[in-house]
Amino acid sequence: MSVIEFVGIPCSGKTRFYQKMKKLLKNKFNIFNYSDLFYIFSKEIINLSLFEKISLRAGYKIYKKRFNSKKTKNVNFSKKTLSPYSYLKSITRNLINKKIELVKNKLINSLSQKEKKIFFILNESIQNSPLNCTQKIILKSRMMEELIGLHIYRKKNLKNYIILNDEGLFQRILSRVGKFEKKDIKKIFTNIDLFKEYFLNGSILFTKSSLNKIKLRSKKRKEGFKFNNFSDNEIKIWINVFNKFYKNYKKNKIFIIKDKNFIQISNKIVKNQ
Fold first, then answer.
1. In terms of C-beta density within 10 A (0-12 exposed, 13-18 middle, 19 or more buried), how is residue 136 classed?
2. 183/160 Cα distance (integer angstroms)
3. Residues 6 or more apart in contact with residue 26 via CB below 8 angstroms
4. How many Cα atoms occupy the beta-carbon half-sphere of 271 within 13 Å?
5. How wide is the angle at C-alpha 113 spanned by C-alphas 112 and 117, nearest 5°?
6. Whole-structure pTM over 0.70, yes or no?
7. How many CB atoms lie within 10 A of CB 153?
8. Which of 14, 49, 87, 126 has its CA 20 to 30 A from that of 224?
9. What would the pLDDT profile of 109-168 be if each residue is shown by its tens digit?
10. Composition of the chain by helix, strand, coil, percent to 5
C-alpha cells in the first residue's frame, strides 16, 4: 500500500473528506496515519526503556480518544478546582506527555542527516507559519510524530497498510507563508522540491475552495485555524501558493477531490496502491 496526504488551504474541507475516505476504506484495509505508526512501531526501531514503552502505550490511548472525539474539552488543571483523583490523573498525563516528547527527540536524533535536514525544513516552516506561539509548540510536536511515522513507513514492510493523513508534511511546508513576501513563497517551493525526493510514491488529495467559502467556514469554526486577522489579499496569495503546488506536482499522484468525484478518486487511488 502507500501513503496518502490531504493538502489544501485551511478551511477547504480536508478533515471532512478524510473522514469520508476513512469510513469508505476502513472495512477493506488497515488504515493508519503517521501518528499511529509513531505510537505503535517506535519500540521496534529504537531501544526504549520499560517506562518509555508504557508511556507510549498509555499516550496512544489518550491520542486515539482525543483524535476520535469531535469536541475538545478545555480542562483546568488547577489543584484548587479539581478533585484529588482528577488532579492525580492530570499529573500522570503530564508525566506521560513529557516522556513521549523525550521519545520523539530520541527518535529525531537517530535519523539520518538527510532526514534531519527535512526536520529542520519542517520546523522552520512551522516557526514561519501564521500560528501563535502555543499553536506552534503543539504543531511542532505533531510534526515530529508525522516525520517519525513516515520514517517508520519507509523503514518497515507495511505493504498491507494504507497510511491516510488528514494533513501531512506537505501541508506543514505550505504553511510557511511568513509575511507573504516573494522570498517567503520562493522558500516554500524550494523546500517542497527537497521533500518530494523523500516522499517517494505517495499520493496527494487536494482540496480546493473559493475565497468566499474559506472565509465563511472560518467564521463558523469554533476550533482550529481561523482567518480572522488576514486580509483578502493575503488569503488570495496563500490560495495561489496551494494552486501552484497542485499545478507543479506529478499529475498521476495528485487529485482534486470533490463531493461529485469522491468515489471515483477513492477507487482510483486504491486501485493504484
1. middle
2. 42
3. none
4. 7
5. 115
6. yes
7. 21
8. 87
9. 999 999 999 999 999 999 999 999 999 999 999 999 999 999 999 999 887 889 999 999
10. 60, 5, 30
